[in-house]
Design a protein that fits this description.
Blueprint lengths: L1 H17 L1 H32 L7 E6 L10 E2 L2 H6 L4 E11 L10 E5 L4 H4 L4 E5 L1 H5 L4 E5 H7 L6 E4 L2 E10 L9 E4 H7 L6 E2 L1 E6 L5 H11 L7 E5 H8 L1 H34 L2 H9 L4 H34 L2 E4 L2 E4 L4 H18 L1 H9 L2 H6 L1
Helix pairs in contact: 1-12, 2-10, 2-12, 2-13, 10-12, 10-13, 10-14, 12-13, 12-14
Length: 383
């Protein structure tokens, strides 16, 4: 049984090869649709990972109350010791942020100024790919650059680059399991404070690690209550909720793209359906001859469905592969108000794209297959 099905699949492939130009044009059309679908799905998936809370999240962001852009959030650095003494806080680090563009942009450079002696303790998961921590600590204008930002700008240790009015020298390239760390540059806190002209002692935010994920809400309430009566009150949120709030423009923009993805799927469905229907109409006599020599109608219909599936799967391999290569090489990332979201396709997006194209190819072939199976043999031979 399986041998017969495999032989019919091979025969369907040979039928496609017989009409190389038509098959190639159909594959290119399907690949274009799946390229668009994969890019849109990558944006949706990246947004979901950046904003969806999980039980393993233990990071809070302490920001100036009623402020959203890094340029307007200014907190005294001496809040650090007060936050560190609050029950439930495991680690806290002051961060001064400077960005090249505060609005939504595809080309944004974000500098995060942190104390040089606290970064390795606060973010032990960060791995140095090139260069070293020592080189960064020993140079006031040194920068540890995330691998995505480094790839996008073509940076390596020893290179100098300038953005947002800040000129730094790359001391190392870092890789982190936290996507945001891979698209920013870490610099010395005093250096960025002076470069941003806000002066020493002022930071944009405090990043706080709590002991356990279930402590996030309680600890954030304690922090805000402690500074409620101060001249610079705070608003504390989980890191992903903070991202969702500050990057509203970005989220609205990406949410709209799901309609583009849906349009790409419908285009692929129509393209394969039209191509297979033309194949069936041009092969009426051949199908009748096959049935005359003993091929059952179901076998003819199976061959038609196989042709649609091969077109869908072949086009998806090409489109998904090109989209993955494009996103990897370009290192695209969205930035909005200091928050950065890298666009990186993952295995789930790739498998979804290829599976969807395969299903679309089969679904689009059902009507042509039914037509080929039900057409009377005599009528087909006379046509």
């Amino acid at each position: 049984m399986f041998v017969k099905l495999f032989r019919l699949l091979v025969l369907a492939g040979k039928q496609l090869i017989r009409h190389r130009v038509r098959t190639l044009l159909t594959l290119l059309g399907v690949a274009s649709g799946m390229f668009l679908f994969t890019t849109v799905q990558t944006m949706q998936r990246s947004l979901d990972k950046s904003t969806r809370m999980t039980a393993s999240d233990t990071t809070l962001v302490v920001y100036r109350e009623n402020r959203f852009c890094p340029e307007t959030s200014r907190l005294p650095e001496f809040y650090l010791d007060e936050i560190a003494r609050i029950d439930g806080v495991r680690e806290v680090i002051p961060v001064k942020i400077a960005v090249s563009n505060c609005g939504a942009s595809l080309d944004v450079v974000t500098f995060r100024g942190v104390p040089a002696d606290r970064l390795s303790g606060y973010a032990p998961e960060m791995n140095i790919l090139e260069g070293s921590y020592e080189a960064w600590r020993n140079r006031d204008d040194g920068a540890l650059v995330g691998k995505e930002l480094a790839a996008k700008r073509g940076l390596k240790p020893g290179d100098a680059f300038e953005a947002a009015g800040v000129r730094v020298v790359v001391s190392g390239i870092v890789d982190s399991p936290l996507p945001q760390d891979n698209s920013v540059a870490y610099v010395h806190l005093p250096f960025i404070q002076q470069a941003s002209k806000h002066g020493l002692g002022i930071v944009t935010q405090f990043n706080v690690r709590v002991n356990a994920g279930e402590d996030l809400e309680a600890v954030s309430d304690r922090i805000d209550e402690r500074f409620r009566s101060e001249t610079e009150p705070t608003a504390t949120q989980p890191e992903k909720a903070f991202f969702a709030q500050t990057a509203r423009e970005l989220i609205d923009l990406i949410s709209f793209t799901r309609w583009i993805g849906l349009g790409a799927v419908l285009a692929v469905l129509g393209l394969i359906g039209n191509a297979v229907l033309l194949v069936v109409r041009g092969r009426v006599k051949e199908n009748a001859i096959l049935q005359t020599i003993g091929f059952p109608g179901v076998a003819v219909a199976y061959m038609v469905v196989c042709e649609g599936a091969l077109l869908g799967f072949g086009g998806s391999l090409l489109g998904v592969g090109l989209a993955t290569l494009f996103l990897k090489l370009r290192g695209l990332s969205f930035g909005n108000e200091g928050q950065v979201m890298a666009l990186l396709p993952d295995a789930q997006v790739l498998l979804t794209g290829m599976s969807l194209a395969l299903i679309l190819g089969m679904a689009a072939s059902l009507v042509p297959a039914w037509t080929a199976m039900r057409r009377p043999i005599v009528e087909s031979l006379r046509s």
